[in-house]
Amino acid sequence: MSADAVTIAGGKPRRWQSRLSWPALIEIAVLVAAIVMGVATYFILDDSSTSQKLLSPGVAALLLLGNLLPVAALLVLIGRRVAKRRAARADAAGDGRLHVRLVAIFSLIASVPIVLTVIAASVMFQSVNQFWASSKAETAFNSTIALVEDAQGQFIDRWVAEARAMATDLGDNRNAYPVGTEVGHNYLARQTLYRNLSEAVLFTYEGKDGINVVDVVNPPNEKSFSERVTPQLLKLLSKQQNPAINRTPDTIWIVINVPDAPDLYLYIGTHVNATFINRQHLAASDLIKEYRTLQEHSHALQLKFNAALFAVAVLIIALTVWIALAVADRLVRPVNELVGAALRVSEGDLAVRVPEPRTRDEVGSLGTAFNVMTARLEAQTTALESRRALIEAVMSGVTAGVISIDSDRTVQLVNSSAVALLDSGGGDPVGRPLAALSAELDALLDSDTREAVIQVAAEREPRTLAVKITRDAAGQVLTFDDITQQLLDQRRAAWSDVARRIAHEIKNPLTPIQLAAERLQRRYGKQIEASDRTFQRLTETIVRQVGDLRRMVDEFSSFARMPKPVFREESLVDIGRQALFLHEVAHSNIHFSFEHQGNAVMLVCDRRQIGQALTNIVKNAVEAIEARDDEADGSVVMRLSEDAEHDSVTIEVADDGVGLPIERDRLVEPYMTTRSRGTGLGLAIVKKIVEEHLGTVTFTDREGGGTKVTMTFDRAMLAAIDTGDGSDADDARDRPLPALTRNRTP
Question: Are 379 and 385 in contact (CB under 8 A)?
Fold first, then answer.
């Protein structure tokens, strides 16, 4: 069962609907309708053939329409399926919907007039066929034949009347114009002439003696006369008074008895011009025959005509569908090429071109315009990409952060330096609001200032940024530099100068003061009573305070004029042990541990300075533990690790003391201290020593409370300045530091 099966009442899926699409169901329905109509038509025609009754025009038209519509619809659906497969083979966009619609529209537009014409022709033919097979048509034909026969009868009756009149005249004037005499012959000739006769014969018939010709005018052919006038005919005339009549296509002859002369007969013949009457009579006879034939074959003719109409209509519709396919292919092919090319352009392929059009119609003009447009787009995009690559190369190469925003303060462009300075975290800043990247920069835009120095709260430590704002109608561009280290260096340089001056001004009088106090004690100490210890305490206080001041001056001197490091390959394990040992002896209540990988962790460094840095860090850790409110034992852990991938060495010192102060970004500044007796120079000296060794130092919170100080050194860089005597140390320190050593890492 498919997942998209349609459910009906009871929750049962329609499997047929999940397997067949609606077009397929319509095709099946049309095919079934065509079969049903064909079967119904067969039974109706079979019943009509049995009864030999013509189908009425309405029934015949309905049968034709009922069979033609499903077949036409099936042809259109087949054309639609063919168009869809052609579109699929051509990889047309939109599943070839335009192709299918054009084929369907063209097919329907052409099929509807064909169907209407066929139905109209069928109705007209059925009406005419039904009329000729009806009793009205038969009556009309019979009336026509009767009319022709009546006209022919009237024509013959005229000559019969002439024959009677001539026989009467001959009988009435037989005495005046005796038959067989010259006078009688002339009289017969005049009668023949006056009556437009072609021939006339007087003859007698006495039975046994046969026929005896008495007088003749224009004698007929003897053979034809003997064939026309026979004893049988004369015997029939003796029994009835009607004349004997016969005719050929061009001759009428009549035999009639002369009144008052029982044995005397008159034969007349005339050539008649009855072509029209004869032709009409023959035509009427032929028409009657054809009409009888038509009546006999009217049912078969009805079936054949409708079958021919159906076949011609189906053939024309099929041809129309094929033409629609060809026309749709011609119209849709360039459109599909344009759609496919447009889709490729939307995906970024500007090198796509459509084939050059072979016609100069609107579609061809559109293809030409599309090629010109994509060519220009490709050229402009290439230029923009080159410019963008140049801008990105320039922006990626500058150390300053650059952010471009639009009028809504949405980031449009940002370089890697800006991302690093603002610690934006994961994700692409482009498209995000500036406030999400830096609330401080966003707040700065609310003012009208163009340049400012602000502090941003980065994830690792606060930074001081010098910001410059450039405004235009499209948006604003912010350019900023991290001046945190610069300010720190400036303060350190200032404090170094102050320390040097303080050390110089204080150290000079310290020695005479100490010597004077010691001399006073030696000279006058014995003169004072032993019970009075005030003088001794005062002189001892002076000497002790001078010693404290001297140590402070020494620290000032160390910070102000730290000697150049002497780089040699040293064992960090030994240096770390010595730094811990000095405090293990003095602070037995604190647990010190040293974790390292083997005893051969070597580093090119100044042993004394690295030892001093570790000593200061451990000293701060001890003081942080002693500053806790509880009296529990503390712990200091030193870890030494190597990173073979980056060829670096890391030293970590972690304690469980009071932790870092709030202003942790100022820990390495000179004279910044949280201790009551601190000078604030210990971590500043550590920072300076680490920088002299091209390393980094970071201060982070220890998990579970306390502080973790991490120093990282690059072995490759330190090995490059290993001189053994420190002669090239200045050159090494003057070299530009890589980004890794200049950026602080947690």
Answer: no
Alpha carbon 605 to its chain's center:
66
Classify each residue of 498-533 as buried b or exposed e, where b means 16 or more C-beta atoms within 10 Å of its C-beta. Answer: ebeebbeeebeebeeebeebeeebeeeeeeeeeeee
Please give the backbone phi and psi of residue 210, each rounded to the nearest 5 degrees, phi first: 80, -155
CA distance linking residue 452 with residue 450, whole number of Å: 7
> Does the pLDDT value for residue 725 go beyond 50?
no
Q: Which of 284, 248, 246 is nearest to 150 (CA)?
A: 284
- pLDDT for 649: 94
Q: Return the CATH class of domain 150-280.
A: alpha beta
CA distances (Å), 16 to each of 1, 5, 120, 493, in order?
10, 9, 40, 88
Q: Which structure tokens are listed for 322?
A: 């094929």
Half-sphere exposure of 604 (CA within 13 A, CB side): 19
Dihedral of alpha carbons 568, 569, 572, 575, sign: negative
Q: Do domains 150-280 and 565-742 have the same CATH topology?
A: no
| Angle subtended at Cα 610 by Cα 609 and Cα 614, rounded to the nearest 5 degrees | 115
| pLDDT tens for each residue of 103-160 | 778 777 877 887 787 777 777 766 665 555 555 656 666 666 666 666 666 777 787 8
Q: Where is mean pLDDT largest: 177-191, 508-522, 653-667?
A: 177-191
Note the pLDDT of residue 106: 77
Q: What is the Cα–Cα distance from 145 to 285, expressed in whole angstroms?
A: 7
Contact of 72 with 111, CB cutoff 8 Å: yes
Which class for 686: exposed (0-12), middle (13-18), buried (19 or more C-beta within 10 A)?
buried
Distance between CA 681 and CA 671 in Å, rounded? 6
Sheet holding 696-701, edge to edge: 590-596, 634-643, 648-655, 707-714, 696-701
What is the band of 713 on the pLDDT scale with cuts at 50, 70, 90? very high
Task: Provide the pLDDT confidence category of residue 653 given band limits of 50, 70 and 90.
Answer: very high
What fold does the segment set 398-482 form as a domain?
Beta-Lactamase (3.30.450)
Which residue in 111, 117, 116, 119 sits closest to 324, CA to CA? 111
Contact 438, 422 (CB under 8 A): yes
pTM over 0.90: no
Q: What is the pLDDT of residues 236-272, one digit of tens each?
A: 666 666 687 777 667 778 888 888 777 788 888 887 6
pLDDT in tens, 300-311: 666 777 777 778
Domain ranges, ordered by start, for the chain: 21-134+298-343, 150-280, 351-397, 398-482, 487-557, 565-742
Q: Are strands 634-643 and 590-596 parallel, antiparallel or unpaired?
A: parallel
Q: Which two tokens stand for residue 82?
A: 């063919």
The domain 565-742 is placed in CATH, from the list 3.40.50.300, 3.40.220.10, 3.30.565.10, 3.40.190.10, at 3.30.565.10
Max Cα separation, the chain? 236
- Alpha-carbon gap, residue 275 to 479, rounded angstroms: 123
CA 263 – CA 174 distance, rounded (Å) = 14
Please name every residue paired with 215 in a beta bridge, in sequence order, or none if there are none. 202
Non-local (6+) Cβ contacts of 53 within 8 A are: 299
Averaged pLDDT score across all residues of the chain: 75
